[in-house]
Amino acid sequence: MWLEILSAAVLSLTNLTLLAAAGLVRFMMPLVPLAVIRAPFWGSAAALGAALLALLATALAQITLWAAAFVWCGEFMEFDEAFYHSAVNFTTLGLTRNCAAHLRAQEPFFTRPGAGK
Predict the structure, then answer these.
(1) Domain coordinates in residue numbering, the chain
(2) pLDDT band at residue 64, thresholds of 50, 70 and 90?
């Protein structure tokens, strides 16, 4: 039991660290006026693009971290399935057909009658 609690705590702290790393984008703000003065449109586009790339990198790192945790806990046997499941959960799509086998058995209870016909 303590191993699960410790691993969940480490996973949560790592996720918070990655979110804090995404927050470091605000330190780029002093550089934005310099870029905008030189080239108003492209400077702004470059600053926005850099911020979006930083957020994308941290999101992919979190998805990868959760996928590794799913494989480590035995929820998925292959990393690519765990990565896809983590990405689906991260983007809040929540497809039930991609859940583990013990959850797929409950799928008829979660679907509406006549859905998909």
Answers:
(1) 2-110
(2) very high
Structure tokens at 16: 């918070």
Q: How confident is the model at residue 51 (pLDDT cuts 50, 70, 90)?
A: confident
Q: Which residues contact 46 (CB under 8 A, 6 or more apart)?
A: 35
DSSP for residue 112: P
- Output the pTM of the full model: 0.60
Q: Three-state SS for 75?
A: coil
Short-list 35, 62, 63, CA closest to 48: 35
Do 56 and 64 meet the contact criterion of CB atoms below 8 Å apart? no
* C-alpha dihedral, 40 to 57 to 81 to 72, nearest 10°: -170
- Asked whether the predicted pLDDT for residue 19 surpasses 50, the reply is yes
